[in-house]
Every structure is written in structure tokens, then in C-alpha cells.
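Researcher: Re-running this chain for the archive, since the previous output was lost when a drive failed. Same request as before.
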Amino acid sequence: MNTIYIGIDISKDTLVVAYPSLDEQFSSAKFTNTPVGIHQFIKTLPAHAHCISEATGSYGLLLVYYLTQQQIPISVVNPKQSANFAKVLLSTVKTDARDATMLSIYGQKMQPQPYVMPDDKVMQYKQLRVLLRQLKKQLSALSNLEHALSFHPKQQSTVQASLQRMLTSLRQEIATLEGEITKISEDEFKHILKLMTSISGIGKKTASALIMATNGLKNFNSAKKLAKFIGVVPTIKNSGTSLKINGHISRSGDPELRALLYMAACSAIRCNPACKETYTRLKANGKKAKIALVAVMNKLIRQIFAVVKNNTPFQKSFVPVRNI
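Model: Regenerated C-alpha cells:
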């Protein structure tokens, strides 16, 4: 029997589901986005169902979890992919039911791979990362406020004392969270962490973030796909004679992970021979420093992928021979 692709539009409170029929028509139903509602939805699924939803962060996590527990395949697609697919079909209607229908059609046409649920520790880590990111934003905002108020001619002692208490508390919480994140990496992914940190320029913080963001690289079969996921591949617009643009990197992934890799690249150009060679060569060819560092980021990604997939620590003395 052929796979039946079920489109699901997810919101904070509801799931709107599109069911295809044999005559290429669609029926829809609405369920609450709760454990009870999700189990009611699962009971309506036909045999050989394959669910399709967009990536919606925390709102879709419960649905994905229960479906994978029931061994029902679900694909989680990038919203840009589904939005562009709707444009290709010249869709002019924007409703929850229509969005679910579009996801069902997308599944039929594109047949995306099922989503692989991360390990429990990875999900715990992601919660820690979300909280850590928010605390760092608060720390930055309060630090800026403290600096701005320090120029006030009539500084208020209560305000300054309150700011100092909050800043101290935030720094302590951030240090605690970072320690917990590193501990999870060391406990659950000790071997992969050791492989990644064998690369000159890659520290525990960068390696931990990469491990958790990629589920230990389990979902990637090439370094190129890993680079695309992180968002460091260049975009190119070249059409006819008038449009020739070398765009910026795609920035499609986690900005904090890219920032960590950028700092790792800055370190690698001093202590990683292959990265140093790449950076020096590109600078000598007239490339800007930032462009050369992005190339080093890609070099590091290839090194990370190689050591993990080959299960071999990085050899600092090894420098690949370039073809002349």
C-alpha cells in the first residue's frame, strides 16, 4: 500500500490536520495541541501514514515525541521550504486548513525523510541552551544599562545596587548552566567530544554545542550537509548578464553555534596548520578577513565531520596536498 502523507499545521493551542483521499480531495480536522488531543489525532491515522509538519520549535515537540513513540513517521520541514512550495503551486489562500493541505501535497511530491528524535540527553541540553541564550541576552541588556547609567550626574545608589545584584546572579546562573551543558556532553558523548576537541581550535564549549545541535552528527552523511545545516555555506545569485551576486552565507542555522565556530576559526588560524594555510592563501589572493574566516569555519566543519565519521583523532601535523 502506498504511503499516505498527512499534513499538520501546528499552533500553540491546536493541530489542524489535512487527510488526502483517493480522488485527490482533502478533508480536515482540528485537535487540541495537548497529550489528549494528540492521542485522539493518532487514532484517526490510516495505515501507512506519514505525517508532515513545519518546524515550530517547542509547539510541535510534543506531537513529534508521541508520534515517534508510536513509530509513526513524521517529517519536520523548514517553513521556507513549504512556503516556497506553496508559491510554486500559485496558492493564494492562507488558512490553517490550507497550510495543512499544502504540507500533505508537499509530502506526496517531495517525500522527505522521517525526522529522527534526538536522545533524551540532547533534549535536556536544548532546554538548557534555550535558557542560557535568554540569560545571556538579559546579562548583555543589564550590562549596557549599567554602563549607560554610570554617566548619570546623580547616580541612584538603590538602582546601582539592584543592577549589581542582578548581574552577579545572572553570571552565576550562566556559569552553572554552562557547567551542566559540558557535563552532559562529557557523560553522554565523551568519545565524540574527545574526537572533536582533538582538532586544534575546537574547545569543549564549541564541541558541546555542535554535538547537541546535530545529535552527535547522527543525522548527517556529508560535511556539506552539516555546513548547510549550520548556515555557513555561501549563497550565489547568477542569472543572465545583469545579475551576478556573490551573496552572504545562508545563516539558516543556530546563530550562537555559528558565533562559536567563528571564534574557533579565529583560534584555528594560529594553531591549526590546515586552517592557517587556508586563511593565509585567501588573504594573499585579496579576500577580506571575514570571508577568509568563513572559509576556515568550513574547513573546521570538514575536519570535525572527518574525525567523527572515521573515528580517528585529528592529526595536527597532517596537511593535505593541494593539486597544482
